[in-house]
Design brief:
The chain is an alpha+beta fold and 247 residues long. The protein has five helices and eight strands. A hairpin with a 5-residue loop joins strand 1 and strand 2.
């Protein structure tokens, strides 16, 4: 049976470009470049000549970096084991009354549930031509890592307590998902599991001032994209540039 699997792997690899092994590194590099552009674009756009009227109407002329921070928490994806998620964010302040713009980058890595892998194995077995009826399909464990680049619009109500800021909102973003496994490495199945897609999310949370320039925040979100959905709960700190804006 090992000979059958070896021959199958050779056929899957035949004709593939030699640079396939660097796909994950390329996606990570591209994702970090896009993250930098997301953070810098509002500042550059606000100063662009001839675009003042459009920026005024959208509120983008009011974008100013007012705080930066980091978060740590847990993510629960569908069909994937729960994992630790880490993120960084940049708060660009109010774009309209009660509305703030926050850009973020989040990373997490985990593996597919055993039940999900059994379903995937059954799907692969269904398309395998096996005249002798003794073929075995074993995919092993498949790990997945995700980098998400998001832009949140957060609405905060009028506050009775100045040092607490609750919020609700929506988010859009780009998600790069990379799957890795010993058996699927370099095959069409790995290509099928890898993806770069757009998605949306519902967000909510609260920031609490704990020091003149520091807030402690709790952030929850539910992301929906392509064939994936995941809920995230994180907590973290944000450093506020008091010379520009308070809590």
């Amino acid at each position: 049976m090992s000979a059958t699997r070896t021959e199958s792997s050779r056929r899957a690899r035949r004709g593939r470009p030699p640079i396939r092994a660097t796909g994950a590194a390329s996606r990570l590099t591209e994702a970090l470049l896009v993250a930098a552009l997301l953070a810098l674009a509002p500042v550059g756009a606000a100063g662009a000549q001839g675009a003042g009227g459009v920026l005024d109407r959208l509120g983008l002329d009011r974008l100013r970096l007012t705080g930066v921070g980091g978060t740590l928490g847990v993510v629960r994806p569908a069909q994937i084991e729960a994992a630790q998620a880490i993120g960084v964010h940049a708060d660009y302040g109010e774009v309209a009354s009660h509305w703030r713009a926050v850009f973020g980058v989040t990373y997490w890595g985990s593996r597919y549930h055993d039940a999900a892998m059994r379903r995937l194995t059954d799907s692969v077995r269904a398309v395998v031509t096996d005249p002798t009826g003794d073929a075995e399909v074993e995919l092993g464990r498949v790990r997945v890592s995700v980098i998400a680049l998001t832009a949140d619009a957060r609405w905060s109500p009028r506050r009775r307590i100045s040092w607490v800021r609750p919020y609700l909102g929506a988010s859009v973003g780009g998600y790069a998902m990379n799957a890795e496994g010993r058996v699927i490495s370099g095959t069409l199945l790995e290509d099928a599991l890898d993806s770069i897609s757009a998605g949306v999310a519902a967000v909510g949370g609260a920031d609490v001032g704990v020091a003149p320039n520091l807030t402690l925040g709790v952030h929850a979100r539910y992301d929906v994209l392509g064939g994936a959905r995941f809920a995230t709960l994180r907590t973290g700190f944000t450093y506020i540039f008091r010379s520009r804006e308070g809590l």
